[in-house]
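Table S2 (continued). Query chain:
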Amino acid sequence: MAFLRSMSKPDPAPVILGKGVYLRNPQIGDFAQWAALREKSRDFLTPWEPTWAPDDLTKPSFRRRLRRYQREIREDQAHPFFIFREEDDVLLGGCTLSGVQRGVQQSCTLGYWAGEIHAGRGYVTAAVRALIPFVFEELKLHRLQAACLPENERSRAVLRKCGFTEEGIARGYLRINGAWRDHVVYAILRDDPRR
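Corresponding output:
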């Protein structure tokens, strides 16, 4: 898949094109779609995510989130994206490349989510497939890893379909829904075959 540079800003942000989807950095104009999708999907997402702050879906909280994202992009610490359906620009979910490590490691961690009404339709798989070349060709990293709860079969299927290799269990890896939970770790390397 391809990635393009937006021409709308002096410091252009990438737009990553996938099969039927595109990814771009979150913007303030996305707030209404994002908040509505997250609210409608709250029960669906809660078992898989950190506990939401009480003001998580408010506009001031979203603005703070955007400021944090801009700082993390500028400092090459993380690269957040929203996933949109190509045919009608509907927000489907999000992907974040976080914990960017340079030096001898050259890696980052992938996280993703989909709104409940869009889950299981291949959109996240298409988005992850589109992000892989961005990680290796644009960011010039060597390793992309992801982790998911052992019982999250949908998430595990996304990673397997995209060519990630299961590496093992990380004990107490992330605090999810208020509890430290073990995660299955997957990774793909720059030289691994693409699917």
